């Protein structure tokens, strides 16, 4: 079997495991194929190794009010769904489920709402400070996937400042995103250093 065939089989195996987990944990099963999700992700710049590493399935969902999550439905909106970790959960492997709209990636919700950020399981304040590395924040799950799951996407804007202020410097996706992140800290006494990717850093005005 060639490499493409092995990757296809790996996707299907992982999708089968995820479908079983969805049925057990959420009483629902994704109604689309893993191959459908893989084709869409590849067309949108998600690294091939990530597509085979993370079980992502298409599903039909009903979006609830903003912040209230989503529900699986027989009719509704098409979404891509994948499991995420919640570091505060008793079992951190699959603590929650995230769905995002592939046609409008800024539309995303989690099913349970336990995690404060997508990617929080990869965040180590000690390592970031040791290497003086800013934590990259992304606006939506698609950008996070395109970046190879490096950085985080904020899921809970009320709880995120508590964690972000312990981490050190952070980096927003763009200027508009930086303003959105800064707004989360209005109730806090100090706003952390919020930078931008080097190519987008503001140019100092000439005196």
Descriptive account of the structure:
- It is a single chain.
- With 207 residues, this protein is α/β, with parallel strands linked by helices.
- The chain has two domains: 3-114, no CATH class; 120-198, Cobalt-precorrin-4 Transmethylase, domain 1.
- Helices cover 33% and strands 21% of the residues.
- It contains seven helices and ten strands.
- It has helices spanning 3-26, 34-43, 48-53, 125-130, 141-146, 160-167, 175-183; strands spanning 57-63, 70-72, 77-84, 96-101, 104-110, 117-118, 135-138, 152-154, 170-171, 194-195.
- The strands form two sheets. A five-stranded antiparallel sheet has the order 2-1-3-4-5. It has a five-stranded mixed sheet with strand order 6-8-7-9-10.
Question: What is the general shape?
Answer: globular
Return the average pLDDT rounded to an integer. Answer: 77
pLDDT below 50 for ≥5 consecutive residues: which ranges? 202-207
Helix content: 25-40%
Strand content: 15-25%
Structural class per helix/strand content?
Answer: alpha/beta
**Main sheet characteristics:** 5 strands, antiparallel
Q: How would you name the oligomeric state of the polypeptide chains in this document? A: single chain
Number of strands: 10
Number of helices: 7
Radius of gyration: 18 Å
Order of helices and strands: HHHEEEEEEHEHEHEHE
Could you give the order of strands across the largest sheet? 2-1-3-4-5
Number of domains: 2
Gap between N and C termini, in Å? 65 Å
């Amino acid at each position: 079997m060639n490499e493409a065939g092995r990757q296809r089989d790996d996707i299907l195996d992982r999708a089968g495991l995820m479908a079983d987990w969805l049925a057990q944990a959420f009483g629902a099963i994704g109604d689309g194929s893993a191959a459908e999700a893989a084709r869409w992700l590849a067309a949108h710049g998600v690294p091939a190794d990530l597509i085979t590493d993370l079980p992502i399935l298409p599903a039909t969902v009903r979006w609830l009010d903003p912040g209230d999550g989503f529900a699986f439905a027989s009719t509704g909106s098409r979404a891509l769904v994948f499991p995420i970790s919640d570091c505060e959960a008793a079992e951190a492997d699959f603590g929650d489920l995230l769905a995002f709209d592939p046609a409008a990636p800024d539309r995303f919700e989690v099913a349970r709402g336990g995690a404060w950020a997508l990617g929080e399981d990869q965040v180590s304040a000690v390592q970031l400070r040791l290497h003086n590395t800013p934590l990259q924040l992304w606006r939506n799950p698609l950008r996070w996937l395109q970046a190879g799951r490096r950085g985080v996407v904020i899921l809970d804007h009320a709880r995120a400042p508590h964690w972000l202020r312990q981490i050190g410097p952070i980096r927003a996706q763009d200027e508009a995103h930086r303003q959105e992140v800064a707004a989360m800290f209005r109730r806090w006494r100090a706003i952390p250093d919020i930078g931008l990717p080097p190519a987008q850093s503001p140019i100092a005005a000439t005196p």
